[in-house]
Amino acid sequence: MVNVGRPRSGFVLIGVVFLAFVVSMTLVALARYWGADSQRDKERELLWAGRQFGRALASYALAAPEGSSALPRSLDQLVFDTRVDPPQRHLRRVPLDPMTGSTEWGIVRTADGAITGVHSTSRSKPMAPDSLWPEERSFADAKQYTQWVFGPVMPRSTLRLPAAGPTE
After folding, report:
1. pTM above 0.85, yes or no
2. When comparing pLDDT for 36 and 156, which is higher?
3. What is the DSSP code (8-state) at residue 124?
4. Of 133, 132, 129, 126, nearest to 147 (Cα)?
5. CA 149/CA 117 separation, integer angstroms
6. Residue 134: what pLDDT?
7. Domain parsing of the chain, residue ranges
8. How far apart (Å, rounded) are the C-alpha atoms in residues 114 and 151?
9. Residues 49-73: pLDDT tens digits?
10. Helix locations, 115-160, DSSP H
11. At 74, is the pLDDT very low, low, confident or very high (cuts 50, 70, 90)?
12. Exposure pattern of 65-104 as b/e (b: 16+ CB <10 Å)?
């Protein structure tokens, strides 16, 4: 006996399962893309913050009065430098580490405790950076963000050229 009035529900079920599979695979691909895009944004923010630290460390060194240290002992000294009168700000505030969301940075110190550089405390693996300055070329080989160390970057205007001799 042939069942004439019953729809073919088996084909509909297979179609729904196939559609659910396609939608889920699309969502997985989008999540990977958005995750990579988000990480690239965070890397750009980290490079920006690191460059700010580099400029602040250089500014701190250039503002050092005779007989005082050219390197700070804390990041707060970059925000409010009391060695000079009136006090000077080399950074407006300590920026957030975009990789960790914290103002806690890894600090590179000299033997006597002065700060020579900062880095993120994130141990995540960096993506291939796309816009590095010459001082940052070593970042391309880094295995973790902790290896992206930002140190003083001297502005070009501070380069001292030899004085011109008398012209004849």
Report:
1. no
2. 36
3. P
4. 126
5. 6
6. 65
7. 11-158
8. 12
9. 999 999 999 999 999 888 888 899 9
10. none
11. very high
12. eeeeeebbeebebbbebebeeeeeebbeebbebbbbeeee
